[in-house]
Specification:
mainly alpha, Serine Threonine Protein Phosphatase 5, Tetratricopeptide repeat, 14 helices
């Protein structure tokens, strides 16, 4: 049985608000006027417009130019955005050291996205020396600001004892905070914990079924969520439902030996 483990790949778990997102299209002429006058917030916003191509031809090099102007004035959002461009190689060559530098400045300025990404970089030794304690410090700062990604990350750290003392209780608490914000990975991991924990204060397979189903509904193409759902059904004493869910997981990932073994296990239990 599997769960979504912590920070599998650096770029696979970046905070959900990427460079270039914009909820409301700005007045570009007015934004440019403010940016050229030296307003760092306007400079960051103009960089986002160029990064996304929202109302203007996309130009990542131009986006980097405006992010840099804002970042050099100490605007945390500009620092974060410039750091992400270096992290992903958009408009500049990928440079993890530069990415870490700007993420750190954003993090120190209170940007929860910068705090989260800096934590990820410390956890994996990307652009900085690997340091799980430092990763936990920055992950906690992001989590304390209400970042669902930070809450999920901190929960994972507690679950696996990375940078903090292992604690299923704390893991469940932080996963729940992220799950309450609709984070599917947190729902999945909390469901797995509730289904399999040996601690009677945490273990609750029936509640795990509901959470795992929500995660699977949110990410229907994610076999891990269906695998967790199967685990929850089995631990709740419903092997036939477990087998059905596991077969769906196997259909999405037919090469998985563990899924095949789980299907056989649940089907055998159902026959008996």
């Amino acid at each position: 049985m599997t769960q979504v483990f912590f920070l599998v790949a650096l770029l696979g778990i970046l905070l959900q608000t990427p460079v270039g997102s914009s909820a409301v299209r700005p007045d570009i002429a007015e934004l440019r006027t403010r940016a050229e006058a030296g307003d760092p917030r306007a400079q960051t916003q103009l960089g986002l417009v160029y990064a996304s191509g929202d109302g203007i031809e996309a130009d990542e090099s131009e986006a980097v130019k405006w992010f840099r102007k804002a970042a050099e004035k100490g605007d945390p959002a500009g620092e974060y955005s410039l750091g992400e461009m270096y992290l992903t190689g958009r408009g500049v060559a990928t440079d993890l050291s530069e990415a870490a530098k700007w993420m750190r400045r954003a993090a120190e300025g209170g940007d929860s996205r910068g705090q989260f990404n800096l934590a990820v970089m410390y956890s994996q030794g990307q652009g900085v020396a690997k340091d799980e304690s430092e990763a936990a410090k920055w992950m906690r700062k992001a989590a304390d600001q209400g970042s669902a990604a930070g809450q999920f990350g901190l929960g994972s750290m507690y679950a696996h004892g990375k940078g903090v003392s292992q604690s299923s209780t704390d893991a469940a608490a932080w996963y729940r905070k992220a799950a309450d914000q609709g984070d599917p990975a947190a729902m999945n991991n909390l469901a797995f914990l509730l289904a399999t924990s040996a601690d009677p204060k945490i273990r609750n397979p029936k509640a795990a079924i509901s959470l795992a189903q929500k995660a699977a509904d949110a990410e229907p193409g994610n076999s891990a969520c269906l695998d967790t759902l199967a685990t929850a059904y089995f631990e709740a004493g419903q092997p036939n439902n477990a087998a059905e869910a596991e077969r769906k997981a196997l259909a999405l990932k037919p090469e998985s030996a563990s899924y095949k073994e789980a299907v056989a296990k649940y089907e055998a239990a159902g026959r008996h």
